[in-house]
Amino acid sequence: MVKLSEKKTDDAKGKKKDPNERKWLVVYTKARAEKKVNDRLNEEGIKTYLPLYKTIRKWKDRKKKVELPLFNSYVFVHVNEQERMKVLSVEGVANFIYYLKKPAVVRDREIEAVKLFLSKTEGMKIDVRIGNIKIGQQVQIVSGPMEGVFGKVIRIGKGKLVLRIEQLSLEMTAEVDWGAVKYVQNEKKQNK
User: Rounded to an integer, what distance in angstroms lies between the CA atom of residue 116 and that of residue 137?
Assistant: First the structure.
């Protein structure tokens, strides 16, 4: 009698699933609770990344420089399977963002690209020239702080390209020089 292996695998290639392996996942928070959730997760010993940008907010009587989340209601967490369950018990966490019915995994490279983007663009505005880019096209940013990131053009506005980065299931507005983006034709996307 032949006994079948009961090893769980990550994919069809037969890679072993390591329950201790940490991956960057995206937590969806309650509205305007990103900073509090980030703090609570850190108190629980969970490694997080909350990308913030600085901007000037105006009120009737004053102006103030504030830090706001780059992605509303999103906090990135670097967790293994056991820690993933712990994250869900933190007050303010609504759920994980899912992609293809699994928690969306964000590659280290993409986290570093967001960090680099924020560090390089603080206080800057970059002009955009669209060129031949059309809605629905797959593009790759080929220079600048987001170099190597792939996305699908979902909207072209005045001076802006709106790209969807599928792994994150979100829209990110990137203002880049037209020469910094290339159309991806018959190339397999490699977001590693």
Answer: 25
* Per-residue pLDDT tens digits for 54-87: 777 777 898 888 888 888 889 999 999 999 999 9
Give the type of residue at 77.
V
Class for the domain spanning 138-183: mainly beta
Q: Please tell me the CATH superfamily of domain 23-106, with its number.
A: NusG, N-terminal domain (3.30.70.940)
The ranges assigned to domains in the chain are: 23-106, 138-183
What is the Cα–Cα distance from 57 to 115, expressed in whole angstroms?
A: 23
pTM score over 0.85: no
CA dist 122 → 55, 125, 126, 142, 178 (Å): 9, 9, 11, 20, 20
